[in-house]
Amino acid sequence: MTGTKLLLVEDVGRDAEAGLGAPYVAVDLVGAGEGELVLVSLGSPAAKAVSHEGATVDAAIVGIVDSLRREGKTIYQKD
């Protein structure tokens, strides 16, 4: 997996507040940047998302969130 970017990510809560649990490492498949809200695939779906045959991957970033709304209110908006 030479040349693959790894990012440190952490889970967020219902209102997109960070810091819920310990940070973990995920393979970045979409070119995410620092401070962005991302979608992470875990387990065997993450391993399947990585194109390197036989790679042992447990977490992969598969999307970048532009905005997040809950109950009609925008709780996250990408700059």
Biggest beta sheet summary: 4 strands, mixed
CATH class, named: Mainly Beta
Question: Approximately what portion of the residues adopt beta-strand conformation?
Answer: 35-45%
The string of secondary-structure elements, in order, is: EEEHEEE
Give me the secondary-structure category: mainly beta
User: Mean pLDDT score, rounded?
Assistant: 89
What is the fold named in CATH at topology level? OB fold (Dihydrolipoamide Acetyltransferase, E2P)
Assigned CATH superfamily: EutN/Ccml
Work out the number of β strands. Answer: 6
Structural notes for this entry:
- By secondary structure, this protein is mainly beta.
- It has one helix spanning 44-49, and strands at residues 6-9, 24-28, 38-42, 59-64, 67-70, 73-77.
- The strands form two sheets. It has a four-stranded mixed β-sheet.
- The model has no long low-confidence stretch (mean pLDDT 89).
Tags for this entry?
OB fold (Dihydrolipoamide Acetyltransferase, E2P); 1 helix; mainly beta; two-stranded antiparallel ribbon; 6 strands; 37% strand; 4-stranded mixed β-sheet; 79 residues
Short description:
The protein is built from 1 helix and 6 strands. It is mainly β.
Please describe the topology of this protein.
Layout: E1 6-9, E2 24-28, E3 38-42, H1 44-49, E4 59-64, E5 67-70, E6 73-77
Parallel strand pairs: 2-4
Antiparallel strand pairs: 1-2, 3-4, 5-6
